[in-house]
């Protein structure tokens, strides 16, 4: 009777190190990418990418001919994030960081790629959040294991500066658990988050999620100011009126929580710089007129966790 074979394992580290040495190595490479706004050349090995990732299998499906093939252009992924993806594909490991060392990057799916795609004096370029760029690439390339590694890392390092960018990625790609973690974090640190650049860059669907929350630890007067700042930035970038930019989100502002004097001041400011539909302000006055103790519990009158008693 034949003795069954035995699988024996060599050292993993030398193997991983050897493969890592092939990342972006021209030696023996048979595919060339031009990546990101930087248009950086990146060299890779077709067979390895194709066997590790269905996206690249489809992308590189044709056999290279005798002529030197044209480079594959991937303009939306920053070079640093793409190299991190390659490192994972070659070695099954990846080094993740909060901030990129690269001065350029792409937007993370906020208000148009517009907020990072145009010059805007209101928003100077911040450090790119590398882990979110890698996460975005992992989702787009269908790399589930890398996606999960990125999600674990994001949750570990989540803070005031990162959370809105992370929420935007979660909303854009339908990452439910990350979205829930981000919203819970913002609910607990609402005032600090409202002052970040990331808040100003949120898309309307992401901001709507926040404004619908009863658990924001911030007063409605501050939320109104934050929504106005958000709309002004969007209006400057998108070259549209403030009221038009604000229209998808301002309905979630609970104006009835403002004191009458605050509501009057808002009404006057709204005449000078339209932000909120007039009928919404009228509804708030009606709420004040009809309010009887705690009887008014519909959304326009419902208090948030941070609502200041008046």
Ranges where pLDDT stays below 50 over 5 or more residues in a row are 102-107, 113-125
**Element pattern in H and E:** HEEHHEHHHHHHHHHHHHH
* Total number of helices: 16
Percentage of residues in helical conformation: 40-55%
Strand order of the largest sheet: 2-1-3
End-to-end distance = 88 Å
Shape: elongated
Query: Largest sheet, described in full?
Result: 3 strands, mixed
Number of strands: 3
SSE topology sketch:
Layout: H1 12-20, E1 31-35, E2 40-44, H2 46-52, H3 54-59, E3 72-74, H4 79-91, H5 112-117, H6 130-140, H7 144-157, H8 163-173, H9 176-188, H10 190-194, H11 197-200, H12 204-211, H13 220-238, H14 242-250, H15 260-272, H16 278-290
Parallel strand pairs: 1-3
Antiparallel strand pairs: 1-2
Helix pairs in contact: 4-6, 6-7, 6-8, 8-9, 13-14, 15-16
